Amino acid sequence: MGVPLRRRSGRSVYRESTPVAEVAGVVESAWTGWVGCRRPLRVFPDGCVDLVWDGRGLAAVTTVRGVLRHELPSAEWTVGLRLRCGVGGAVLGLPMTDLTAEATPLRDLWAGRARRAEARLAECGAPGEARSLLEELVAERLRDVELDGLSIAAARALRSPGARADRVAAALGVSERGLRRHVRHEIGVGPKELQRVLRFRRFLNRVEAVARDRSSLADVAAEVGYADQSHLGRECRRLSDSSPGALVRSWTGRNVPD
């Protein structure tokens, strides 16, 4: 589930924190969102899975195949854990190719364990308490599963702008077909598509620099691994349904040419 372009927008606030050590190997970050009124949200692909409590239910949200349009409920706060890229299949207990790009109720995957967690989360009076329960839930789950170290290493290696799938496979001691099988199981797409998503995520991390006139779209495109600004534009529209300039405008509110 992608990180918002702005950590504070209108009445909504998004804040990340470091997960407890017991789950840090599989959890990239814990987060809290103060939502305010009910509203639609675009969630951009990032290759990760989020376990989200929105006050009504516990869901696994995955967005690796493209932008997700998600309706935020009216709630005082929501909490989530962002799983590291490469561990989703193991933690959830099924191939990530079996999940669609949407919020899947966790009770459909973990049955009674998820329902018991939801009952406890419903009694939480503060987001910190709910985050702790989510971390406890993941720690309990980790005692029952074996993580795929190869997929974790592959996801890390494929983040590099110059990475090539054949070289990553060779470095990890598997064939390209084997690499593709591991990555698809744990993340939901093959190495080439994952690279496109990770490159787009690098661009999103640089949107603020463009919005604050610290860089240009052309410079950012080159920095994060696109062939040129036109390449950035095509990929941005494909993965977000928006142009690069529109994403910058959504951050700053002013006119930015594509």
Automatic annotation (TrEMBL):
<dbReference type="InterPro" id="IPR046532">
    <property type="entry name" value="DUF6597"/>
</dbReference>
<protein>
    <submittedName>
        <fullName>AraC family transcriptional regulator</fullName>
    </submittedName>
</protein>
<keyword id="KW-0238">DNA-binding</keyword>
<dbReference type="Pfam" id="PF12833">
    <property type="entry name" value="HTH_18"/>
</dbReference>
<keyword id="KW-0804">Transcription</keyword>
<dbReference type="Pfam" id="PF20240">
    <property type="entry name" value="DUF6597"/>
</dbReference>
<dbReference type="InterPro" id="IPR050204">
    <property type="entry name" value="AraC_XylS_family_regulators"/>
</dbReference>
<keyword id="KW-0805">Transcription regulation</keyword>
<dbReference type="GO" id="GO:0003700">
    <property type="term" value="F:DNA-binding transcription factor activity"/>
</dbReference>
<feature type="domain" description="HTH araC/xylS-type">
    <location>
        <begin position="148"/>
        <end position="250"/>
    </location>
</feature>
<dbReference type="GO" id="GO:0043565">
    <property type="term" value="F:sequence-specific DNA binding"/>
</dbReference>
<dbReference type="InterPro" id="IPR018060">
    <property type="entry name" value="HTH_AraC"/>
</dbReference>
